[in-house]
Write a structure and sequence with these properties.
Blueprint (H helix, E strand, L loop, with lengths): L14 H9 L4 H7 L4 H16 L4 H13 L1
Helix pairs in contact: 3-4
Length: 72
């Protein structure tokens, strides 16, 4: 049985990229490397996005703060 990872490791992807990640031949670090992203950087972004949710941000405030997280 597969196990879902926690939301603290999730990064939003377009549906087509989500399918490519899960159904393609690359593992997760290789997938992100193909897009020019270091896996550790993607994990840091996921942690930052999750912290926004833990901090109680919702809706537009979350999106604005998330843009700062992703852009660094």
């Amino acid at each position: 049985m597969g196990r879902k990872s926690g939301d603290d490791w999730a990064v939003p992807l377009r549906q087509d990229l989500h399918r490519k990640l899960h159904d393609g031949p690359l593992d997760e670090p290789e997938f992100f490397q193909e897009w020019g992203l270091a896996h550790d950087d993607v994990k840091a972004i996921a942690q930052g996005l999750y912290k926004l949710t833990l901090d109680g941000l919702r809706g537009t405030k979350w999106v604005v703060a998330a843009e700062r997280v992703v852009r660094g």
